[in-house]
Amino acid sequence: xxxxxxxxxxxxxxxxxxxxxxxxxxxxxxxxxxxxxxxxxxxxxxxxxxxxxxxxxxxxxxxxxxxxxxxxxxxxxxxxxxxx
Length: 84
Prior knowledge:
84 residues, mainly alpha, two-stranded parallel ribbon, 5% strand, globular, disordered N terminus
């Protein structure tokens, strides 16, 4: 199976949006939701920019699961720049 990319160029940009958290999710529920959306399309860019503790608790399991499923995590830096 070829390696699938998690992060793709802008032409293949997909932002996986979570629904309003009017009903808070636990880390396991959030993980299942995000993984199901990634698997549905097979690629995408995932941005976590919230301040919810369940998201922080979920990230290690999320990264492990992506690796297990054959996705690669790509660190993107500006052209000619250094990561900060």
